[in-house]
Amino acid sequence: MTADPRTIRIASGQGFWGDDLEAPVRQVERGPIDYLMMDYLAEVTMSIMQKQRARDPDAGFARDFVPLMQRLFPQLVERNIRVVTNAGGVNPQGLADGLVQAGREAGVGQRAKLGIVSGDDLMDRLDELLGAGHELANMETGEPLTTVRDRVQAANVYLGAEPIVEALAQGARVVVTGRSTDTALTYAPMIHEFGWRWDDHDRLAAGVVAGHINECGAQCSGGNCMIDWWDIPNMDDVGFPIIEAEPSGEFVVTKHVGTGGRVSRATVTEQIVYEMGDPRTYITPDVVADFTSIRLEDLGNDRVRVHGVSGRPATDSLKVSIAYSDGWKAVGTLVYSWPDAAAKARAAAAILRSRLDRLGLVFDEIRTELVGWDSTHGALAGEPPADLPEVQLRVAVRASELAPVDRFTREIAPLILTGPPSVTGFAGGRPRAQEIMAYWPALIAKDAVRPFVGVEMREV
């Protein structure tokens, strides 16, 4: 089949906060693209960003996005490439301020518009919403949010593509969001470019599938791949995926010619089944996609055509990602070497637990693992062999109060001289107590959020 002449190329540049910083540069420089999509957020990322903003009101977004954009701005303007990203985290306005300055320092002042999507942050409205009868019950346990309300640190609703499409329609070169769905970063440009209707469920669902394939970066182009992973070429220069989208909703997954990695039916399939529940009901704010309808055709040369996707009308609710304080934790490690490495590590763990008991410390949980033997498979690993060359003893504790966790951090080091022999691996020093941010998924009626979703346009 010949590609539609109106095909657009939407490149993935980041799969998570901390991904390859050079990937967006490679996507811009190594071939033609129309859009650069960069996904930074996961539930744990939102918690980290919220903790950062609690310490510094100007923080709470992906700070490395600003210098990256300063580097890319001239090429984005010259090549007419638009960027859509959720790097705004819990402070998209703070990121916008940095981008305006970065664009001016890059010499593109007054040649780029910045669209800022807001309305996902519900923190200031929580009590109002609860008072209005929105329970925000935990989707897994059914408990109402009131049971942990005093410990809530962040509450962000997953927004769909509509505000991103609005920003693109207003001429935004860069669209910054907070907690948008990962998939919307890809299918919003498709809606904007092709003029899809909001009730064209099959095309919207195809866009969702494209976004799901694109959202995790190189995970669909050879990274983290179980199928013949040892044969995947040049992973040191892996090509990130590109969606070649057509107005019909069909699209091709590919990557820049000459880059490493692989795009095949197998790699794309592995990404499709990643983080998927019921394959018939992949719910987004704009449409429900049926993943069982997906058809893949391997065209060779790192090109896979995706077609046949069907969808149904969206639900009347949105998902809310809520983070709340849930105690403290710490993790300590020591490495024991041959002979009897596993026996030494287990003896050290027993000594440590006895000392903790003698100190009267109470924990909600103590977990002991031998990294290199049973940390992945647990009891299924069986008994370790006597000639195991080395293992890492990893002990983790959690408690509702800081005091016992903090004391635990002081009890690892004494094992070096008061426990079994041949210990090493303590160069990292004393472990650090960390606050636990727990995840509370909930649903909220769309009409409680939509009136508060907005798009602000700024000149770079």
Termini Cα gap:
41 Å
Task: List segments where confidence is low: pLDDT < 50 over at least 5 consecutive residues.
Answer: none
What is the residue-mean pLDDT, rounded to a whole number?
94
Q: Helical percent range?
A: 25-40%
Shape: globular
Helices, by number, come to 12
Number of strands: 19
Beta-strand share of residues = 15-25%
Q: How many whole angstroms does the radius of gyration measure?
A: 25 Å
Main β sheet profile? 10 strands, mixed
Q: Helices and strands: which structural class? A: alpha+beta
**What is the strand arrangement across the widest sheet?**
11-12-8-7-1-2-3-6-4-19
**How many domains?**
2
Summarize this, please?
By secondary structure, the protein is an alpha+beta fold. It contains twelve helices and 19 strands.
